[in-house]
Specification:
205 residues, Porin, elongated
Length: 205
């Protein structure tokens, strides 16, 4: 915690004077992918929740001094859950589920303040969520291929978030942010949401 605080203070101390919204910008980001799902009868209440790391890239443009438009893609790592099945046989049986979320988003951002070392922004938009689900059964730790299922969903999700742009020299900025998306998987699948707190490095043309 102390090291993180010193890092933040160092960034603020050496940051260049703030610059107003301008031109086009690109951002590379890393984030924590926190996924939470409801339970449903189709998957027999198999756990899909998980937390992993992810990375993404965005390109944006300043529409006005206060408004921006950003298109980006973010991919989280796969997460896996294993659940024991209670059977009358002495051979242990388990169900294993794996899922991954890849998000392509188009958002509009609003920045009430356009100058200063730290500029806050709020954004909302639409995300096309590519959700991959894999389910198989393990017998004595060995997967049974005939019982495996692979489902791919391409669904729409509502996305909101906020960011803080910390200006650095040479048109660079550090951008901590948090994004939240809500969606429902197809085929009467569970509803879910993903919260992605992260940090990016932005370069403005």
């Amino acid at each position: 915690m102390r090291g993180a605080s010193l890092t933040v203070l160092g960034v603020l101390a050496f940051a260049s004077p703030g610059f107003a919204q301008r031109g086009t910008f690109v951002t590379g980001a890393v984030f924590a992918d926190v996924k939470r799902f409801s339970r449903d009868s189709v998957s027999f209440s198999l756990p899909l929740d998980g937390t992993a790391f992810g990375a993404g890239g965005r390109v944006g443009v300043a529409l006005t001094q206060q408004w921006t438009a950003v298109l980006g893609i973010d991919a989280g790592q796969s997460t896996t859950n294993v659940r024991d099945l209670f059977t009358p046989t002495p051979v242990p049986r388990q169900t294993r589920t794996e899922n991954q979320l890849i998000a392509t988003s188009a958002v509009i951002g609003y920045h009430p303040q356009v100058t200063g070392r730290v500029v806050f922004g709020y954004f909302a938009g639409l995300t096309f969520m590519h959700a991959i689900r894999k389910t198989d059964t393990l017998v004595a730790g060995i997967p049974v291929e005939s019982l495996a299922r692979h489902t791919v969903d391409n669904i729409a999700a509502a996305t909101i978030g906020m960011e803080a742009r910390i200006s650095l020299p040479k048109h660079l900025a550090v951008v901590p942010e948090v994004r939240a998306s809500a969606f429902r998987l197809s085929g009467a699948g569970p509803s879910g949401f993903a919260i992605r707190p992260g940090v990016g490095v932005r370069w403005t043309f």
